[in-house]
Amino acid sequence: xxxxxxxxxxxxxxxxxxxxxxxxxxxxxxxxxxxxxxxxxxxxxxxxxxxxxxxxxxxxxxxxxxxxxxxxxxxxxxxxxxxxxxxxxxxxxxxxxxxxxxxxxxxxxxxxxxxxxxxxxxxxxxxxxxxxxxxxxxxxxxxxxxxxxxxxxxxxxxxxxxxxxxxxxxxxxxxxxxxxxxxxxxxxxxxxxxxxxxxxxxxxxxxxx
Length: 209
Prior knowledge:
The protein is of the alpha/beta class. The strands form two sheets. A six-stranded parallel β-sheet has the order 4-3-2-5-6-7. Strands 1-8 form a two-stranded antiparallel sheet. The protein has helices spanning 17-20, 25-28, 34-52, 72-78, 80-84, 123-130, 142-155, 172-185, 192-201, and strands at 2-4, 8-13, 57-62, 108-112, 134-140, 159-168, 188-190, 203-205. It is built from nine helices and eight strands. Strand 5 (134-140), helix 7 (142-155) and strand 6 form a beta-alpha-beta unit. The mean pLDDT is 96.
């Protein structure tokens, strides 16, 4: 799969306090967020590298209404604990992107109501307006919002490159299974060094994993 910088953007999925911070709602439920925090650091470095060569940077946040009226099955039946603790509520600290991410005014920040970055957002419009037909992807969690976004990108014939060090999950087995699934049918999984080299050179060819 060929990467061309002129048609590409960097998509960073749900790097928000709730998934990354030791006092966020995920850690408060007893889950280890250290892998996600480490992946976030790689994402921030990718954002810096992308801006340096003129690639657009897009951040998503999973945000629901304060009363969770738009939470749907996720907060009522699939993960009801999220509804009970009002996780991902608009205006809460958990939905904010950390200051160390270094979001800049020229970046896109898109709030989404579901796992996929495409569902219920203006991402399609933002990509079309810039002529974007390829995405480098990082974020959390690998098996949920990252994979959902990558699958939807593939269905739109958007070339998608998942940066291995820049994605993470709360469960190592789910993380690896998700990477295998994406590499098999939806994207190329590449290393961070390969990603930054491709950004810098402007073009690269990534073979089947």
